[in-house]
Amino acid sequence: MHSELRENTHPILNDLQHQQFKQDGFLVLKDFLSKENCESLKEEALQLIDEFNPEKIKTMFSTKNQVHRNKKYFLDSGEDIRFFFEENALDAEGNLTVEKNLAINKFGHALHDLNAIFSCFSRQEKIAKLSNKLASDPVIIQSMYICKQPRIGGEVNCHQDATYLFAEKEPVIGLWFAIEDATLENGCLWAIPGGHKEKLKSRMIREEDTTRLEIYDDAPWDLNKMIPLEVPQGSVILLDGLAPHMSKENKSPRSRHAYTLHIMSRNNKFAENNWLRKQNYTGF
Ligand code: FE2
Q1: How far is the CA of 241 from the centre of ligand 1 (A)?
Q2: For a Cys staple, 262 with which of 23, 94, 141, 251, CB 3.0–4.6 Å?
Q3: Tens of pLDDT, residues 141-155
Q4: pLDDT single digits (tens) 266-283
Q5: What is the CA radius of gyration of the chain?
Q6: Other beta carbons less than 10 A from residue 29's beta carbon
């Protein structure tokens, strides 16, 4: 059977899957993207890392105003492609302690607008269709490529994405693409089934060139309820903006590359006091 035909007869997200997503707050769709598709994005990602000159931002990470400048570099990344290092990948003078291609934790957050390959990848038919199924007239809020480097890939504490990307009408939705296999060993995602039914626990509020955390509920998440989402390359994990999720350290010799998009309906309202500021949120 031709693949186009198969796609037509099998909806991109059937009702049962949609229902499961609403119930759990996350959903794994395996075999969503082809191996070639993932490999070509990875190739571009590695190329971007290769072209990135850490000397350019060295001063930013080595002056007295380090914390402030770090913050600004992050806060202005919504309209740019900026690189962030794994913790401890830089010494006090801003020098890399490991090779550059192993030091990058992630980069973003306007890859989908500024890089042709990332733009095509993000707007390919399957992703556009899926996004249209999840949100009406969807727009992309941000894009991010996460490396989760071998042996030094850091842990990401349990959080809700709405803490950082708050939309007023309904939570943003995360699309997490496994560009490489994500396993227990290399730090796959973990999530709490149904955890999105709890309220938002905190919000990061932007104030000029800094941020503060507003806490609504300081009770810790019940991490015993977490289940691992081990997925092969080409899978996509859908994440409700309120779904509590995390990932552990990567102590393995293998990286765990992932690409994420956050989307919402065009008629939703992205809070003005989110850290991320962007002139336009582009669609598919
Ligand atoms: Fe997240």
Answers
A1: 8
A2: 141
A3: 999 999 998 888 889
A4: 999 999 999 999 999 999
A5: 18
A6: 19
